[in-house]
Structures are given as C-alpha cells and as structure tokens.
From TrEMBL:
Keyword field contains Nucleus: no
Xref: NCBIfam families: PRK07726.1, topB
Record InterPro entries: Topo_IA, Topo_IA_2, Topo_IA_AS, Topo_IA_cen, Topo_IA_cen_sub1, Topo_IA_cen_sub2, Topo_IA_cen_sub3, Topo_IA_core_domain
Family: Belongs to the type IA topoisomerase family.
Gene3D superfamilies assigned: 3.40.50.140, Topoisomerase I, domain 2, Topoisomerase I, domain 3, Topoisomerase I, domain 4
Species per Swiss-Prot/TrEMBL record: Listeria booriae
Name of this protein: DNA topoisomerase
Gene Ontology CC annotation, any one: cytoplasmic replication fork
Length: 706
C-alpha cells in the first residue's frame, strides 16, 4: 500500500519527516520508512495554497473591463488554477497523489488547512482515494507519532472544507464585484482607484473610522469635583464626593449651603473591610495573546502570529491559531510535571502551588478543535532559547508566565471602604491592602499594575475627624484611538458596538467578525491597501480609507452585524445544518442589491469634500515629463496626466525594497535620492545605492560617489 502525506508547507513536512525512523529528501518530497506505515510512504508539501480561484477574465473576455455593465460577475462553476510559480511543486504533488492508495491530509489542523489540502487533491483528480486526516496540536516528535498512529477518517473533516471553500467563494464574489462597483462609482467622482472592498475588511475599517470620527468630533467639557483631605487619629486619607458639577458655581453653592468651612469637623459614618479574591488570568487564545503582545511590545498582530508560528515549528509552543482558553487534563499533567523547570526559567517560586486541575483552566468539554496556547511537553534547553529572536523570546516568556499562573493561588486582598460625613456631605474612600500576592508574583515589568494600592489608616465608626476641602477641575476625555491590539479585541467582541438585540446575539454566537486565524491578515490587508496606517501604535484611517467609508456608510457594509450574520451561517455549513448553495444564493442577492442601490446611497456632497483631501493626501510631487500631479496609486506612483498619454510612473518596490515616501518625494523634486539601504541582489545579498531619474525618465540606480 502506498501512502502519501500532504503537508501545508516545507517546514511542516520536515517536522513530520524528522519524527520518522528513516527519511530521505527527494525533489519536492521525502521518502520515509517507519513501522507506523506499511509499504511505500512519502511526505510532500504545498506552499500554502497551490490552487486558487481564477480571475474574472478567465471566465469571459469582457469581464476584463472594470465597468458597471459587467456587474454582477457570478461564475456558474468556480474555476481554479495553479499559479505559475507553484506549478513545479504542484506537478510533483499531483503525481504522488495520483499514484497513492491512501492520502493523509497533514496540513494545518484548521478549516483553511482543510481547504488547502482538498483543493490540491481535487485539482489533481485524486478525490476518489482513501483519505485520512492527521489532527495534532504540537509538532513534537511524540505528538506527531501519536497523531500518525491515530489517523482520523477524512470524511469527518469534509464539512470544514465546505465551510472554508464557501468562505473563499463568497470572498471572491464580494471582492471582485463590490470592489469594481465602488472603484467605478468613485472614479466618476474624480477619485483614483482601485477601492478594494471585502466581506470582513470593510466593516473592520468602518469600525476604526467611526472611532476616529468620535475622537475628531469630541468637544471636551470641564467638570468640577470635590475632594477632602481627612485627618483622623491614626493618619490622613483622601475622600471624594460622589457627584460631579458642570460649573464651579454649582459646586460653591453646595459647599455654602452645607456651611463647609476651612478645617471642617466631621465624623466617620461607616468603615467596612471585605476580603476579595482574584484568580489568575485565563490561558492564552491567539487573539488574547496578540492584544497583550501589542500592549507590552507594540508588535502588530501579524508579527505576533509569525513569531508564535515559529515557536510552534520549533516545537516549543502548541498550535497557535486557537480561540480556546482551556486545556484538557492531558496537558495539565505534563505542565504540572514541568512546573519546577518553568519556575527556574522565570526565577520565581510559587508558594503552595495548586496541583489539582481547576475548571477555570482545565475543561475537556470546552476544548473542541484546539486547546489554549501553552508550552509543549518538552522543556526547551537554554541554547535553543538563545537562538530565538527578541520577540519570540518575549512571547515564549509571556506564555510561560500565563501558564504557570494556572498553578498559583488567588491574589487575596482586603478592600476597605470609609464613608466620612462632613456636615451632611458624604465623602468616600476606598483602599486596598494586599494579604496574599498569589499569582501576581508572576507579573513582569510589562504588566500594568493598574490600581496601585492605597493603604488606609485604621479608623473606627463614629470617630471624629477634621477635613480640608479641595475642589478640583477636570475635563472630559475622548475615547482612545484603537491600537492593533485593542482592534483585534474589538473585532472579536464586535457585538458591543451593535445596537439591535438580535444582532448582538448573532455576534455572540459567532464571536465577532473574522476568525482567530484571519484577523491579523485582515489588518495587514487594510495597511497594504493604504486604508489605514499605524503610527506610534495608534491606528488611523487614511484619507483614502475615509473616502471608502463615506461611500459605504449607508450600506450593510458598514455594519459588523452584516458580516457576523454570514459568519454564523458559515458555521452552520460546518455542523451540517447549512449548505453552500443557500449561502451563495444569499450572497448573490446581496451583491445584486448593492449594485442596484450603491449609486443612490453615496452621499455625493460629503464625497466631493473628501475628493480634494484625498487627492492632496496622495500627491507626492510633480511629474518630470508633463508637470501634472504624481500620486500614490496603491501599487505604484503614477501621473494624473495618464489620461493625456503621460506614462511616467515610479514603482513602490525596487529590488525587494519598499521605497520610503520621502525618497519618492526627493526623486521628483531633485531627480535623485540619498543612499538607501536594503536593496537585494538576486543571490539575496543586500546593497545600498542612491536612485535617480535618468535621461530616459526612468528610475535607475546611481552608484555615483558624489
Ligand atoms: Zn506626467
């Protein structure tokens, strides 16, 4: 019997091969020998997707043109192709799959992984073979071997494929049709496109835009509060009156009415102390980790995912694309055994560790596809950890701290509330006294210890005090800009910004918009389309982004509930209670409706105001040939004079290096730049050089020493 194992990418295939008794590398696959498999066995791989949906003009010649007359473009049957750079590997894979008796799908254990594998198998006409599925949570040798010994029937995962494929098809339909629709409509208004629109990216962009609008339109208002420094027998503390006033006069009037004076005598009305407990934070899901890493180290969610993926491939952490906060007793067992070495690594000792599983962390019923991100069974050696880059090291340590927290006792503190009566005005004071540090011994310097505790003097009911009154002026503050970390959380909890109760329920079911695996890449797409920028960890919508938001404001594309409803139906396809046909039919109806109504829902007046802003925001300089404006067109810088035949343009990327905007500006104003680092030769070596506009008005390297 011949078995062919299909991995998602070369590094994964290598990890599988390393877990086998013998393996030999061939061109595009490994030959392996191991008692787990009888007969000839190979491991081959994709480069992620080897097969993708074709572009519109492949269906019909006329679909090449971006015009409203062509819309909607709805293929009767979706066609797929292998892109040129992946043909060689696809041919290797296809040949192996066709010759196999049994195929083992060993791509990432998630929906997208299933789609990657099934698309390749289907395009290779190997669907009729016996198909098995490898489902593992870690790339450690023991886990990989256990996974191969316990392969699961392929058909159990077929609906994952259907769900992911439906997602892919509907993304194609929305992307191709609606991007063209808005690009054409906005071009009519004098704007350069293209304006890409997506099922998840556009509602996400609108969320950022709305927050930005709130901030920009915010008018700070002054308010007045009153504090009291209260002198008791055993010491001083500060109390606060509960009400806020909008004018100084109102506050003064109240103080006068109550006859409050300098050194006002008063009495302690109540003093209450309650013991409170706080359990350690739950284990990390991917989005939770992405938010925390962004907060502590300013890394983007995509950078974090890349680093966690590398730690997974290095067999140090478990499977990263998980939305689960729990583990099973199996993981708890080995983590407890490794506790001493984790403590040694962190330089921390947990006093009285809790070695019995607690439901907050360990609950097999809550682990469906994957468990939370935790260290793998094998404790990495110091020289292995030394090879990690700084972000990977920080993330490993963060996961370790979170995991060890599971064994630490609760943080226990006394919360004391004092109410002081000053001539009938009640002032409240809350103080906290730590009794047992518990899991908080694991907090690092990067964790914000929000409420620094105030220790209060010991006071008794009815005790006489004197107080000095201190009025204070403050100002209301606008909401904060999103960071990429808070944005990931907002996407996950998108329900909170939804008005209708029904929408909220859908969002609760679907856990917001996007999936754990895709949120980071959605933010990257928005950046790549120049819709948003991140500056000092603050997410801002660009003028181009604002234009799109204005254009779609009155449609369902501006609502998270819009995409959330779809996500919830997609889940139904996964559990078998929904079908791809129904979903695509609804999608088609939505697209047709948008095409019919988009022009009327565009608020022309505000768009026209935005046109000027966008044009000037995108302008980088003057064309050296015709003198018209050169602007940022997304993929390159082009001349507005193209309508009159000017073909001048500057690429965004030269020899592997994305040109800084300042370099493009100086090319246009001085015909040359200063030296730029980071160009790459074909052999991968980097070099530095200046750029210039040559005699033929082309951008070329200038190795001139001057
Ligand atoms: Zn020009």
């Amino acid at each position: 019997m011949k078995t062919v194992i299909l991995a998602e990418k070369p590094s994964q295939a290598k990890a599988y091969a390393e877990a086998m008794q013998k393996s030999k590398k061939q061109d595009g696959y490994f030959e392996i020998q191991d008692p787990i498999f009888h007969g000839e066995t190979m491991i081959t791989w994709g480069f992620g997707h080897l097969v993708s949906p074709v572009s519109p003009e492949i269906y019909k010649d006329e679909w090449k043109a971006w015009c409203l007359g062509n819309l909607p473009m709805i293929p009767e049957r979706f066609q797929y192709e292998v892109t040129a750079d992946k043909k060689k590997q696809f041919n290797v894979v296809a040949k192996l799959l066709k010759s196999a008796d049994q195929i083992v799908i060993g791509t990432d254990a998630d929906r997208e992984g299933e789609n990657i594998a099934r698309s390749i198998i289907s395009h290779a006409n190997a669907e009729k073979k016996t198909i098995k599925r490898l489902w593992i949570n870690s790339l450690e040798v023991a886990e990989v071997r256990k996974g191969f010994e316990n392969l699961r029937p392929g058909e159990d995962f077929y609906t994952s494929y259907l769900e992911a494929q439906t997602r892919q098809k509907s993304d194609w339909l929305v992307g191709m049709n609606i991007s063209r629709l808005y690009t054409v409509l906005l071009q009519e208004k004098g704007l350069d496109g293209p304006f890409s629109v997506g099922r998840v990216q556009t509602p996400t962009l609108y969320m950022i835009y709305q927050r930005q609008q709130e901030i920009e339109n915010f008018k700070p208002e002054p308010f007045y509060e009153v504090f009291a420094d209260i002198q008791s027998k055993n010491g001083t503390f500060q109390g606060k009156y509960k009400e806020r006033f909008s004018t100084k006069e109102e506050l003064q009037a109240l103080l006068q009415k109550k006859g409050i004076i300098q050194n006002q005598p008063g009495v302690i009305q109540t003093v209450e102390t309650k013991e409170k407990k706080q359990a350690a934070p739950v284990l990390f899901s991917l989005s939770d980790l992405q938010s925390q890493v962004n907060k502590a180290y300013k890394a983007s969610p995509a950078e974090t995912l890349e680093a966690v993926q590398a730690l997974y491939e290095a067999k140090i952490l478990t499977y990263p694309r998980t939305d689960c906060h729990h583990i099973t007793e199996g993981e708890f067992g080995y983590l407890a055994n490794n506790l001493a070495s984790y403590e040694a690594h962190l330089g921390i000792t947990i006093e009285n560790p809790l070695l019995e599983p607690r439901k907050r962390f360990v609950d097999g019923k809550k682990v469906q596809e994957h468990y939370a991100i935790v260290p793998t069974k094998r404790v990495p050696k110091n020289d292995e950890l030394a090879k990690l880059n700084p972000l990977q090291k920080n993330i490993y340590e963060m996961v370790l701290r979170r995991t060890v927290g599971m064994f630490a006792p609760d943080y226990i503190f006394d919360e004391t509330t004092i109410v002081t009566d000053l001539n009938g005005l009640l002032f409240k004071t809350v103080g906290k006294v730590e009794k047992h540090n518990g899991w908080r011994c694991l907090l690092s310097n990067h964790d914000t210890k929000e409420d620094e505790e105030t220790t209060l003097p010991i006071v008794t009911n009815g005790e006489a005090v004197t107080a000095t009154i201190k009025p204070k002026t403050g100002e209301t503050k606008p909401p904060a800009y999103f960071t990429e970390g808070t944005l990931i959380t907002a996407m996950k909890n998108a329900g909170k910004s939804v008005e209708s109760k029904e929408d909220k329920e859908i969002l609760k079911e679907t856990e917001g918009i996007g999936t754990e695996a895709t949120r980071a890449s959605i933010l990257e797409t928005l950046k790549a389309q120049s819709y948003m920028e991140v500056s000092k960890n603050k997410v801002v919508v660009t003028e181009k982004g604002k234009t799109l938001c204005l254009a779609i404001a009155k449609t369902q594309l501006s609502s998270p509930a819009f995409t959330a409803e779809w996500e919830s139906y997609l889940k139904k396809i996964h559990d078998g209670s929904g079908t791809q046909e129904v979903f695509l039919r609804n999608m088609e109806r939505f697209i047709r409706h948008l095409i019919d109504t988009a022009r009327a829902t565009i608020d022309s007046e505000s768009i026209m105001q935005q046109v000027g802003k966008t044009v000037s925001a995108n302008a980088v300089g003057q064309c050296p040939i015709c003198g018209d404006v050169i602007r940022d067109l997304g993929k390159f810088y082009g001349c507005r004079g193209f309508k009159n035949g000017c073909k001048f343009s500057i690429p965004k990327k030269i020899a592997g290096k994305t040109l800084p905007k300042t370099a493009v500006q100086s090319l246009l104003s001085k015909k040359k730049t200063a030296k730029i680092k980071g160009f790459k030769k074909k052999d991968g070596k980097t070099f530095e050089a200046a750029l210039m506009i040559d005699a033929e008005n082309k951008v070329s390297f200038s190795f001139d020493k001057k």
